[in-house]
Design a protein that fits this description.
Layout: H1 2-76, H2 78-101
Length: 102
């Protein structure tokens, strides 16, 4: 009986050692995969940032032209501009109320 118990204890120790080794291997694999995923995500973010910067810098002249046109129109028609601004504020307020109720 004593020998059977010693054999079981040795088997359990061997199984625990094997499981510990497998867990260590899994941790190393996960660490490598996590590092790879982090670098991939970081590279994708950098590429997206560069693409966005190029798009904005290409669109900036048109944005400036439209802003100057809008400024000229507002200066030429102050009453209409005030009305449009008020309507815009009302629309923003309604949208905010709508989204805050959800």
């Amino acid at each position: 009986m004593h020998r059977y118990r010693d054999s079981m204890a040795d088997d359990l120790h061997d199984q625990i050692a094997s499981l510990s080794s497998e867990v260590a291997d899994l941790r190393r694999q996960m660490s490598r995969k996590s590092a790879r995923a982090y670098h991939d995500t970081r590279n994708m973010g950098a590429e997206f940032g560069e693409m966005l910067r190029e798009y904005v810098s290409a669109a900036l002249p048109e944005i400036r032209r439209n802003a100057h046109r809008l400024e000229r129109t507002a200066r030429d028609n102050p009453a209409a501009s005030a009305g449009v601004a008020a309507a815009g504020l009302v629309a923003i307020g309604l949208a905010a109320t709508f989204f805050l109720r959800r």
